[in-house]
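Example S7 (structure tokens).
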């Protein structure tokens, strides 16, 4: 039976597919860590109170990258170069999701609108991250090799999503609601398209590594297209709603350290 659990178990059981999976994940998380660190450094003076939370966000992402690399090391594997067509964070940046890297590499302070835009983009991408990690936590929370990593990363992603909700609601109350909703909608529609394309690319690479038959690969591709169709019609709306989270001030403390994987 083809299911999310059986599919990931197959990827997990094969060294080469696991190597690619962790390499893609580590690269994306490390990139997110750099982006948040730069945003924290460039926060405008009027918004400096937010800088520690942005730094915490970046530290968490950087920690996740180290965790995926540690999982590789535990199995005696080295990271592999990430195929460009599977690089979710790079493709998002090229589509204008997130602040442009040219802006982050400069020493010019960001504007208030930049911070609002960053939070709106993050609200969309953190929705995806939270859902993906919840899926892994549901099936692999007790796995002897990856369970601890899955639980920690999943909890962090839930915190990131809560933080985005709370901060965006604060800015909406200050009169930025219309800009926030416009940015959320544009970001969500772009993200679901990029997620579809990246998912197809990742499955294509996994299929070659694992020797999937053409019918099986076609079924998986059809499933990805079906998810996109649902998201394009209605599913994107879950990425643009805002509600006060149960976890208040979710990024108000220091980042937790990465666990050791012996």
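Recovered sequence:
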């Amino acid at each position: 039976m083809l299911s999310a659990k059986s599919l990931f178990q197959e990827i997990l059981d094969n060294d080469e597919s696991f190597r690619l999976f962790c390499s893609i994940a580590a690269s994306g998380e490390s990139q997110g860590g750099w982006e948040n660190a730069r945003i924290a450094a460039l926060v405008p003076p009027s918004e400096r109170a937010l800088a520690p939370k942005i730094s915490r966000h970046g530290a968490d992402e950087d920690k996740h990258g180290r965790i995926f690399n540690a999982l590789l090391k535990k199995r005696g594997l080295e990271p592999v170069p990430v195929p460009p067509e599977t690089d979710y964070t790079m493709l998002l940046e090229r589509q204008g999701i997130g602040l442009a890297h040219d802006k982050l590499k400069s020493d010019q302070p960001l504007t208030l609108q930049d911070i609002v835009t960053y939070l709106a983009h993050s609200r969309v991408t953190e929705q995806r991250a939270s859902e993906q990690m919840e899926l892994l936590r549901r099936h692999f929370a007790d796995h002897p090799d990856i369970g601890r990593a899955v639980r920690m990363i999943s909890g962090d992603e839930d915190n990131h999503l809560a933080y985005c909700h709370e901060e965006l609601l604060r800015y909406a109350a200050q009169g930025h609601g219309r800009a926030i909703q416009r940015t959320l909608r544009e970001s969500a529609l772009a993200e679901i398209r990029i997620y579809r394309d990246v998912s197809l690319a990742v499955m294509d690479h996994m299929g070659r590594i694992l020797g999937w038959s053409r019918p099986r690969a076609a079924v998986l591709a059809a499933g990805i297209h079906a998810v996109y169709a649902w998201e394009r019609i209605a599913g994107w709306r879950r990425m643009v709603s805002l509600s006060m989270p149960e976890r208040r001030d979710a990024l108000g403390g220091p980042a937790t350290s990465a666990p050791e994987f012996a």
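Notes on this example. The first helix runs from residue 4 to 13.
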